[in-house]
């Protein structure tokens, strides 16, 4: 396609292969070059995906060759890389977590706004087919106004071999998985402004928490309970399934195992099985997550091309990251923490 936007992918580690498979499917965009501080990784992945150029320094952004940059590095690098992209006037899609704390996320959003450069967080869980269908059911009014939600992510997948940096991450589970659940809670139940949270470090030797249990207070009066754990042992493993329930004033949707939505409304019950997309590059157990990657990327490109706001812009995501910050403060203090208790509101 001659009019494709040309992208630079920065960060050629564990998850970047999903990005490159995804970009190959996206209408209106292509990856023109990849970059990693470890240039041998950049070269290897470029060869695997037939990408014409590879680099070892993100300052290649200044060459004027790129219409967007896809940042797939860990959160400690995000502020610097977004600042570089903003200086080069290149729109950004960036992996979650946006930053290691709320103050950093605020600065990233400020960099984006001051430069007039749009930044979207690659928050792919809301682009899973299951949650898009659930959002449609809620929008149809079938179960009425939402009043209670529960989202549960519990498994014991070995994240430590593929992402060893997680062993040393002090803000671990809430930033790694909690952030997806907080975004989903906002997507399904509306914005929230207060949290109570208890954290646990179940596996020995971790720098941070590997299990968290939260209650969210939504601005519309509804409540969401969230529980997440990487120390939950079941056979077969539930990774990467989010289970739970959404209750409305006139019905309920249960999110059951193996991507089944059970809808209770008007005294009736029906099951909707959400099928995988059937891509040849996805593989169990990651399929549900992998399938959501090209949908997330397509939303970025479509929004960019039509001048529309991203669903998960840096600005919008401040609501999510403020909840994560409030959750850590709550876990430390043992109290409900609202946005009024943060130094700056989102
Ligand atoms: N959305 C999801 O479902 C999902 C799943 C897994 C990981 N992730 C996220 O993806 C991100 C990347 O995770 P990963 O496991 O692939 O990490 P990784 O450590 O395997 O890879 C990151 C790569 O970035 C490179 N890098 C770091 N700083 C750089 C810089 N300034 N310039 C160029 N390259 C640089 C590193 O050398 C490394 O190769 C993380 O933020 C993680 O949270 C998201």
Automatic annotation (TrEMBL):
Lineage: Bacteria, Pseudomonadati, Pseudomonadota, Alphaproteobacteria, Rhodobacterales
PANTHER family membership: CONSERVED EXPRESSED OXIDOREDUCTASE (EUROFUNG), OXIDOREDUCTASE
Name listed for the protein in its UniProt record: Putative oxidoreductase
Superkingdom of this protein's organism: Bacteria
SUPFAM superfamilies: Glyceraldehyde-3-phosphate dehydrogenase-like, C-terminal domain (SSF55347), NAD(P)-binding Rossmann-fold domains (SSF51735)
Gene3D superfamilies: Dihydrodipicolinate Reductase, domain 2, NAD(P)-binding Rossmann-like Domain
An example molecular function term from Gene Ontology annotations: nucleotide binding
Stored InterPro entries: Gfo/Idh/MocA-like_OxRdtase_N, Gfo/Idh/MocA_oxidoreduct, GFO_IDH_MocA-like_dom, NAD(P)-bd_dom_sf
Ranges where the GFO/IDH/MocA-like oxidoreductase domain occurs: 131-235
Domain Gfo/Idh/MocA-like oxidoreductase N-terminal: residue ranges: 8-121
């Amino acid at each position: 396609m001659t009019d494709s936007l040309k992208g630079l992918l920065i960060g050629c580690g564990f998850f970047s292969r999903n990005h490159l498979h995804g970009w190959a499917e996206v209408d209106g965009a292509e990856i023109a070059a990849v970059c990693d501080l470890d240039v041998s990784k950049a070269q290897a992945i470029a060869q695997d995906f037939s990408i014409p150029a590879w680099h070892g320094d993100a300052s290649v952004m200044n060459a004027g060759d790129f219409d967007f940059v896809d940042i797939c590095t860990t959160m400690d690098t995000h502020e610097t890389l977004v600042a570089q992209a903003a200086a080069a006037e290149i729109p950004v899609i960036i992996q979650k977590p946006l930053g290691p704390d709320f103050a950093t996320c605020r600065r990233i959003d400020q960099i984006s706004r001051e430069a007039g450069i749009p930044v979207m967080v690659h928050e792919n869980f809301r682009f899973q087919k299951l949650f898009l269908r659930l959002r449609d059911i809620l929008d149809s009014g079938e179960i009425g106004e939402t009043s209670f939600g529960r989202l549960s992510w519990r498994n014991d997948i070995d994240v430590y071999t593929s992402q060893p940096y997680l062993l040393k991450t002090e803000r671990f589970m809430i930033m790694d998985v909690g952030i997806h659940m907080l975004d989903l809670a906002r997507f399904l139940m509306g914005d929230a402004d207060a949290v109570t949270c208890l954290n646990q470090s179940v596996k020995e030797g971790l720098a941070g928490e590997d299990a968290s249990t939260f209650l969210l207070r939504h601005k519309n009066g509804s409540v969401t309970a969230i529980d997440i754990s990487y120390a939950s042992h079941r056979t077969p493993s539930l990774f990467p399934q989010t289970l739970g329930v959404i209750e409305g004033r006139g019905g309920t949707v249960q999110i059951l195992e193996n991507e089944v939505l059970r809808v209770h409304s008007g005294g009736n019950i029906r099951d909707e099985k959400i099928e995988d997309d059937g891509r040849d590059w996805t593989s169990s157990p990651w399929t549900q997550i992998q399938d959501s990657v090209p949908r997330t990327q397509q939303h970025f490109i479509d929004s960019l091309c039509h001048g529309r706001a991203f669903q998960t812009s840096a600005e919008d995501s401040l609501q999510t990251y403020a909840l994560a910050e409030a959750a850590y403060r709550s876990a430390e203090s043992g109290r409900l923490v609202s946005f009024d208790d943060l130094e700056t509101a989102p």
